[in-house]
Write a structure and sequence with these properties.
alpha+beta; 63% helix; 7 strands; two-stranded antiparallel sheet; 350 residues; 9 helices
C-alpha cells in the first residue's frame, strides 16, 4: 500500500471515529424529539442522517489525501538523499531545502548530511592510504624489479645470447663451406641455422619484455594504450578503446590499471571473446572504467568465491572508495564497470 492510500484509509477511519463520537455527544446533549426528524430534516435534498456521515467521510478522505501527499513528498526527499549518500556524494542541504519539514524530518536530513560528510572523509582517507601504500610499494618494487631485470638481462646476455650467437656463426660457416647441394643433410643444416636465428629473435623479444607491470611514472592513458596495443599485436581479438586523458593520484591510477589487467586477463583466459571494448571517461565527479566483451559469459551468482579474479578487483575497488558493477549473461558476454568518486585534491593537475 502506497503512502497516499494508507493516509487516505487512515483519514476515513479517523472520520468515522469522529462521526461516532460526535453522534454520541450530540444525542446525549441534544436528544431529538423523535427519530423521524433525522429523516425529515433535509439538506441539499438529502436527509440529515446522510449528510453528516458523507461530510465526515469527505473531510477525512481529504485530510488523509493531503497528509499522504505530504508524506509521499517527504519519503521521496529522504530516498533521494539516501541515494546520494549511497553514491558517495557529499550532501550540503540548504535552509530552503529543510524549510517546511517537521522536526523529525529535519533531524533525519541532518543525520544524513553528517553521514555523507563522514563517508566522504572515510573515502578520502582510504584513497590517501592507498596512495601512500602504492608509493611505498612502488619504490620497493622498483628497486627489486630493476635489480632483477639487470641480473636476468646480464645472465641471458652473457650465457644464452652469446651461445646462440656463436652457434649461429658456426652454422653459417658450415653452410658456406659446404658445397652447394640439395640433399637431406644440407636441408637439415639450413633448418638448424634458421631455428637458431629464430631463437635469437625470440631472445631479443624477451629482452624487450623484461619490464615492470606497473605504470611507473606513466600516465594512466599511456599505460592503458600500451597494454592494449601489445594485446592487439599478440592476441587474435578485436580491441576497441576509448580512453580520455584522466589524471588522478598515483595510487588510484595504479589500482585502476591493475583492475584493467585483471579484467583483460580474465577475458583472455575464460571468455573466448572475439571483441573487447575498453572505456575510461570522467563524468561529473566520477571516473568510470568499463570493460566489455562478447564472450561466453557466466552466472555471477553461481560463480565460485574468488573465481575470475573478481575478489581481487572488488578489493582494489574498495581500496580507492569506488563501486563495482558486474553484468554477465551466458553466451552474451560480460560487462565490468568501476565507478570511482573524485574528491577534492584527488586530481593531479601536473
Amino acid at each position: 500500500m502506497t503512502a497516499v492510500k494508507r493516509q487516505v484509509t487512515i483519514g476515513i477511519i479517523f472520520a468515522l471515529a469522529c462521526l461516532l463520537l460526535f453522534s454520541l455527544v450530540f444525542f446525549f446533549a441534544f436528544p431529538p424529539a423523535g427519530w423521524s426528524m433525522l429523516w425529515k430534516q433535509q439538506i441539499w435534498h438529502l436527509p440529515f442522517v446522510f449528510i453528516v456521515p458523507i461530510l465526515a467521510l469527505f473531510f477525512g478522505a481529504f485530510v488523509g489525501l493531503m497528509s499522504g501527499l505530504y508524506w509521499r513528498q517527504v519519503f521521496i526527499t529522504l530516498d533521494d538523499t539516501l541515494e546520494k549518500v549511497e553514491q558517495g556524494k557529499t550532501l550540503s542541504l540548504s535552509e530552503d531545502h529543510r524549510s517546511g519539514r517537521s522536526c523529525e524530518v529535519q533531524n533525519i536530513l541532518q543525520h544524513a548530511e553528517k553521514i555523507s560528510v563522514q563517508m566522504g572523509k572515510l573515502t578520502q582517507l582510504t584513497q590517501k592510504t592507498a596512495n601512500e601504500t602504492a608509493e611505498i610499494e612502488e619504490k620497493a618494487i622498483q628497486k627489486i624489479v630493476s635489480e632483477e631485470r639487470n641480473r636476468l638481462a646480464r645472465e641471458l646476455h652473457d650465457s644464452v645470447s652469446q651461445q646462440l650467437f656463436a652457434a649461429s656463426m658456426l652454422m653459417s660457416t658450415i653452410n658456406e663451406l659446404r658445397p652447394v647441394s640439395d640433399d637431406m643433410e644440407s636441408r637439415q643444416l639450413k633448418l638448424v641455422e634458421q631455428t637458431i636465428h629464430q631463437s635469437q629473435l625470440e631472445m631479443r623479444a624477451l629482452f624487450l619484455h623484461l619490464r615492470p607491470v606497473q605504470l611507473h611514472g606513466k600516465a594512466l592513458k599511456q599505460g592503458m594504450e600500451e597494454l592494449l596495443l601489445e594485446l592487439k599485436q599478440k592476441v587474435p581479438m578485436n580491441i576497441n578503446a576509448t580512453i580520455e586523458p584522466v589524471h588522478l593520484e598515483r595510487g588510484i591510477e595504479d589500482q585502476l590499471f591493475r583492475i584493467l589487467q585483471e579484467s583483460v586477463s580474465n577475458t583472455l583466459r575464460h571468455a573466448k571473446a572475439q571483441n573487447l571494448d575498453v572505456l575510461l571517461i570522467k563524468r561529473e565527479a566520477f571516473v568510470i572504467l568499463r570493460v566489455t566483451d562478447d564472450g561466453v559469459g557466466f552466472q555471477p551468482q553461481s560463480a565460485k568465491p574468488g573465481a575470475y579474479g573478481l575478489q581481487n578487483m572488488k578489493e582494489r575497488t574498495a581500496q580507492i572508495g569506488g563501486q563495482i558493477k558486474l553484468v554477465s549473461v551466458p553466451d552474451k558476454g560480460t560487462s565490468l564497470e568501476i565507478k570511482v568518486p573524485i574528491l577534492e585534491g584527488d586530481e593531479n593537475h601536473d
